[in-house]
Design brief:
Blueprint: E1 51-53, E2 75-84, H1 87-92, E3 94-99, E4 110-116, E5 119-126, E6 132-136, E7 146-151, E8 172-174
Antiparallel strand pairs: 1-2, 2-7, 2-8, 3-6, 3-8, 4-5, 4-7
Length: 176
């Protein structure tokens, strides 16, 4: 997804993580395939619950961090995820916690860049398995609609041998 509809003459690049060859499956088509793309359509709004997130989860950790509510939810981002900037954020600012579970987080930190309507706001650097607070003042959010989290790199729990989760995950986001 894009922050805004590209202007006429701008280019939209799509990167494919894997390709396949139909010939290996008995199909008489020897060209290597990526993805099929139809006409692109740009939406004026993102879904109410955001985009680029795994469904909300519960049970952060045992015991819960001091800032967490008893029924605290969190969401995993992908490489990029966006939420609506609601009236509460516009009035009080944004306060949340981010955590990386990358297996090599101690050796290789993860950067999370935050954008409000495509405008850079700040970078959060995660270098441990602990929850890190992130806050944005309300003045940075007034007049904005979307808050985007762009993660420098993702990881895959299944490939890492940690769980059967097949998705590429970014960071965990919890909003108390």
């Amino acid at each position: 997804y894009c922050f805004a509809e590209p202007a006429v003459g701008e280019q939209l690049n799509i990167t494919v993580s894997r390709v396949w060859n139909p010939q290996k499956f008995g199909v008489k088509w020897g060209r290597i395939q990526g993805v099929a793309i139809r006409k692109l359509r740009f939406f004026d709004e993102i879904p109410e619950d955001g985009i680029g997130f795994v469904s909300p989860l519960r049970n952060l950790t045992t015991p819960l961090p001091a800032w967490a509510k008893p029924d605290q939810q969190y969401r995993w981002t992908g490489k990029r995820a966006t939420i609506h900037i609601d009236d509460i954020m516009k009035k009080h600012g944004f306060k949340a916690y981010l955590r990386s579970k990358h297996p090599d987080i101690i050796e290789n930190s993860v950067e999370v860049q935050l954008f409000a309507d495509g405008n850079f706001v700040q970078t959060v650097i995660l270098s441990s398995l602990d929850w890190s607070p992130v806050s944005i003042t309300r003045s940075r959010l007034v007049g904005k609609k979307w808050l985007t989290f762009q993660v420098s790199r993702t990881w895959n729990p299944r490939i890492s041998g940690i769980s059967n989760e097949k998705r590429n995950l970014g960071v965990e986001l919890a909003v108390p």
